[in-house]
Amino acid sequence: MNYLALDASTEACSVALQVNGKSFSRYELCPQSHSLQLLPMIDAVLNEAQIKLVDLDGLIFGQGPGSFTGVRIGVGVAQGLAFSANLPVVGVSSLQAMAQMAYIKNGQTQVIAAIDARMAEVYNAYFVLDQDNIMQAQQAEAVTQPDLLAQHLEGVVSTPFYAVGTGWDAYAEKLSGILSSLRVNEASPDILFPSAEAMLVIGQNKFAQGQGVSAENAQPVYVRDTVSWKKLPGK
For the Gcp-like domain, which residue ranges apply (predicted)? Predict the structure, then answer.
């Protein structure tokens, strides 16, 4: 089966393509320029693989959480491409993709993913490898204040875990003592952003389980549904 995966949910922009057992990918850190980079990256991997969009079996997209604008760009591009080629789609969590990459790169099977969500919060979830070698969330993805993360994960995490995501560096002081006795990698995480390569693995599994939907049903997952603005002093 031939699939294309794309993601624009964070500062990283990436695409990955699997065609006849071969993989092609692009990855770039390009904050605030995803709308300019994503389509050319998709064209590049399709041309490299010498395949057309209509020859694919499905499309996989990063559904969030992450940047509101980035998530919307990714979902919008996915819908447009899927409509044009009449392809089914599946969404993949950006947090799950980072956890999956920790398994792919480092063989880690228990991971806490935490992305800086701004507004002094982190998007987070705890993942454990399942029987299909896919990292699965052990509770609903959430947005949490860093100093409350340990409380949020209490009773869920009881064994050594691997940390991934920008949240661990962005709120290093507040997170330094959280579950420190269980954290495997004390230094800055080597996986800071999600990648389409990991989404490709997860998405294929979802398609195999019959979770593909039509383009019109491609939905973002913001986790934080609203943004509240605090009035600055003197304003």
Answer: 29-174
Q: Is 172 exposed, middle or buried (0-12, 13-18, 19+ CB in 10 A)?
A: exposed
- Token pair listed for 18: 């699997």
Under 8 Å between Cβ of 112 and 157? yes
Q: Which is it for the CA torsion 80, 86, 87, 89, positive or negative?
A: positive
Under 8 Å between Cβ of 25 and 13: no
Cβ–Cβ < 8 Å for 117, 228: no
Structural domains for the chain:
3-93+194-217 (3.30.420.40), 95-175 (3.30.420.40)
Question: Which residue intervals of 19-93 are DSSP H helices?
Answer: 34-49, 68-85
DSSP-derived letter for residue 231 is: P
Q: How many CB atoms lie within 10 A of CB 178?
A: 22
CA distance 218 to 235: 40
Task: Write the pLDDT tens digit of every residue in 118-146.
Answer: 999 999 999 999 999 999 999 999 999 99
Q: Are strands 122-129 and 135-137 parallel, antiparallel or unpaired?
A: antiparallel
Q: Which tens digit of pLDDT belongs to each residue from 155-178?
A: 898 889 999 999 999 999 888 766
